[in-house]
TrEMBL record:
Gene3D superfamilies, alphabetized: 2.60.120.920, 4.10.830.40, Classic Zinc Finger, Immunoglobulins, Zinc/RING finger domain, C3HC4 (zinc finger)
Chief site of localization: cytoplasm
Name of the molecule in the record: TRI36 ligase
Keywords: Coiled coil, Cytoplasm, Cytoskeleton, Ligase, Metal-binding, Microtubule, Repeat, Transferase, Ubl conjugation pathway, Zinc, Zinc-finger
Limits of the COS domain: 336-393
Length: 710
């Protein structure tokens, strides 16, 4: 048998760090005091109401919520877990035991079982700890006597005399169950928290909790696998007994591991001291270098100051001599008093030269030295950046890599990254970005902490390039920065629309998905029957579809994906006053040289083909992008055929009357032309044969980095 004093660690609540008081069993199978659960929920609801303010941390002096739990509370409150009034309310509870966010269901704390077994063990531990402290009778007149038994039905303790008085012979109370003195009173029958009048008689193997027959018939356990309580009791007791026996049989192995752990503790202490000493020496070297640089810089400034002061002082003395009766002027005045011409000429010649120099200096005054010390400003921006990155680097922590294929720049930026290996993954990532400008040598990085491997960044400037990099952190250890990736935003604000299922939509040849974000053209029997009567050439019409929203002014951008198997797709824009011509156009032919009614094969149609189009479209198909034939286009046909990008974009500038076709992955313009924007402009698409077009999905909050790990 295990001594009762050796199990204290198992009887401590992970929230308040004290012995359990009325413990509740959470769905994750951890136990928390009833009072602690309520206080944590109050703190959590306050955090939701206050938006994660610091006041939510001051809920109760009794509870000790860890900083990681509060970080999860703040993170969940920011991620928007509030539900509207039409959806069932689900209570999230940050478990202090497993650090997960547990869903308590609609009933919340009322749907949790009280752990009576754990209560009994805690009571036995308390009694062993206070063996000398007696439990007094609850009904004695003062002074109370020591109790000799406790009634489980009355939930009270009695001495012998009081027990006889309150449980007279021959009455119903005489049949009550009594035990030795205790303060732990538990019900004889465990009732279902969902259906308070029903006793639990089954065990749900999926949820690992007792249930009643109503829970199985029509409750949340209707489709779960359950077993009888006696079977569950027998099975779990056998498993627990076998596991305990196994652990006891491995006592020598456990002791050996304890000895090894003691050695590891001492080794960790020694290694940590050594690491501290090495870190101290490294920083001392930096301090020494900085002190030397500091002394040299201060000496240089002091020397320059002394030299400049000397020059300025000399210049000031010279100008002082130009005053009347002082210096040079006073001396000249005395020379003027000389009456002997020979003596005067002998002295005045040199004096006149000095007077002329003084006169010229007055006309163009310039200080002998500069007063500013701009040449002595120490630029430490690069050093600050390097010192900011100063941290412990670990070879075992993988360097994350930004996945350019999964990253997207659309209405918002979605940046995704991954680690090459699976070992020693980071606990948190730091994503940095800045606007990329080749003219600026250094830019200020904006920093974001991310808990997953992706992040949505809003409010980026249009038609701009941004540099991104990411690093991982595991405690105080960090990985080196990833390779910088340059991504470009769309050239204009993103325009949102759906495919129009009314205006000109041909439901026989085109198939829309329920959300109207994808359209598919199937080369079925209608095309086959239409081609059966053709003996020469090929004459087939395109199936057109437009967007359900028009553009009247401004500059807008939208993107889409064309399936690789698509035979022929045309994309572009159409004006509202030409939509009727769009759906009744007779020039949509795969071989325009042949027309049945003309009776001849002529190339004259080619010259006027583009001018007759009531809209602006480019042709895609067979994994190719075809630049239209224009005077500015390359004459070589092969140079007009480009590989089809995985994502295409269209930028319409109504103010300038231009439309551009882009590789939406790199935001590179492939072709641009003028377009008549006199009417309301609509996105237009045409499909023939087997083809499909999918509109680009806007980057929304569902791409955020937080994912529940339950």
């Amino acid at each position: 048998k295990v001594a009762i004093k050796g199990i204290e660690r198992e009887l401590i609540c992970p929230a308040c760090k004290e012995l359990f008081t009325h413990p509740l069993i959470l769905p994750c199978q951890h136990n928390v005091c009833h009072k602690c659960v309520k206080e944590i929920l109050f703190a959590f609801e306050d955090s939701l109401a206050d938006g994660g303010s610091e006041s939510s941390n001051q809920s109760s002096p009794r509870i000790k919520i860890s900083s990681s739990s509060m970080d999860r509370i703040d993170r969940i409150s920011r991620s928007g877990t509030k539900r509207n009034s039409l959806t069932p309310r689900s209570t999230l509870f940050p478990c202090p035991g497993c650090q997960r966010d547990i869903d308590l269901g609609e009933r919340g704390i009322n749907g949790l079982f009280r752990n009576f077994t754990l209560e009994t063990i805690v009571e036995r531990y308390r009694q062993a700890a206070r063996a000398a402290v007696a439990i007094m009778c609850d009904f004695c007149k003062p002074p109370p006597q020591e109790s000799t038994k406790s009634c489980m039905d009355c939930s009270a303790s009695y001495c012998n005399e009081c027990f006889k008085i309150h449980h007279p012979w021959g009455t119903v109370k005489a049949q009550h169950e009594y035990v030795g003195p205790t303060t732990n009173f538990r019900p004889k029958i465990l009732m279902c928290p969902e259906h308070e009048m029903e006793r639990v008689n089954m065990y749900c193997e999926i949820c690992r909790r007792p249930v009643c027959h109503l829970c199985k018939l029509g409750g949340c356990h209707a489709n779960h696998r359950v077993t009888t309580m006696s079977t569950a009791y027998k099975t779990l007791k056998e498993r627990l007994s076998k596991d305990i026996e196994y652990l006891i049989s491995k006592e020598s192995q456990v002791k050996a591991h304890i000895t090894q752990l003691d050695l590891l503790l001492k080794e960790t202490e020694c290694n940590s001291e050594r690491a501290k000493q090495e870190a101290f020496q490294s920083f001392e070297k930096l301090f020494h270098v900085l002190e030397e640089k500091k002394s040299a810089a201060l000496r240089a400034i002091e020397a320059s100051k002394n030299l400049r002061l000397e020059k300025l002082q000399t210049q000031a003395e010279e100008y002082q001599g130009l005053l009347e009766n002082n210096g040079l002027v006073g001396y000249a005045q005395e020379v003027l008093k000389e009456t002997d011409p020979s003596c005067f000429v002998q002295t005045a010649k040199q004096l006149h030269v000095r007077i002329q120099k003084a006169t010229e200096s007055l006309k163009s005054f310039r200080p002998a030295a500069e007063t500013t010390f701009e040449d002595f400003v120490v630029d430490i921006r690069k050093q600050e950046e390097i010192l900011g990155d100063l941290s412990f680097h670990s070879n075992g922590l993988e360097v994350p890599e930004i996945n350019e294929e999964q990253s997207r720049m659309y209405n918002k930026a979605l940046i995704s990254w991954e680690c090459p290996g699976k070992t020693d993954s980071a606990d948190i990532y730091v994503l940095e970005y800045h606007k990329h400008n080749r003219e600026e040598e250094s830019a200020t990085w904006q920093e974001i902490e991310v808990c997953s491997k992706s992040k949505v960044i809003p409010d980026l400037d249009d038609d701009s390039s941004y540099a991104f990099r990411v690093r991982g952190y595991k405690g105080s250890i960090c990985s080196p920065w990833s390779r910088e990736v340059i991504l470009r935003t769309p050239p204009a604000p993103v325009f949102s629309f759906l495919f129009d299922d009314k205006c000109g939509y041909n439901s026989e040849h085109l198939l829309l998905n329920p959300g109207r974000t994808s359209v598919e053209s199937r080369a079925g029997f209608p095309l086959l029957l239409g081609s059966e009567r053709m003996q020469v050439g090929c004459y087939t019409t395109l199936n057109y579809i437009i967007g359900d929203t028009g553009i009247a002014k401004g500059k807008h951008f939208w993107a889409f994906h064309v399936e690789a198997y698509s035979y022929l797709v045309k994309v572009g824009v159409v004006s509202s006053n030409k939509i009727q011509k769009l759906f009744h156009n007779t020039h949509d032919v795969t071989s325009p040289r042949y027309e049945q009614d003309s009776g001849h094969d002529s190339g004259s149609e080619d010259a006027s083909f583009d001018s007759l189009q009531p809209f602006t479209l480019v042709t895609l198909g067979m994994k190719k992008f075809f630049i239209p034939t224009t005077p500015a286009a390359p004459k070589d046909p092969a140079s007009r055929i480009l590989p089809l990008p995985s994502r295409l974009g269209i930028c319409l500038d109504c103010d300038k009357g231009k439309v551009g076709f882009y590789d939406a992955g790199r935001m590179k313009c492939l072709y641009e032309c003028e377009v008549d924007c006199s009417g309301i402009m609509y996105p237009a698409f045409a499909l023939m044969g087997g083809a499909a077009v999918h509109l680009e999905e806007a980057v929304t909050a569902k791409y955020e980095e937080y994912h529940d790990d339950m």
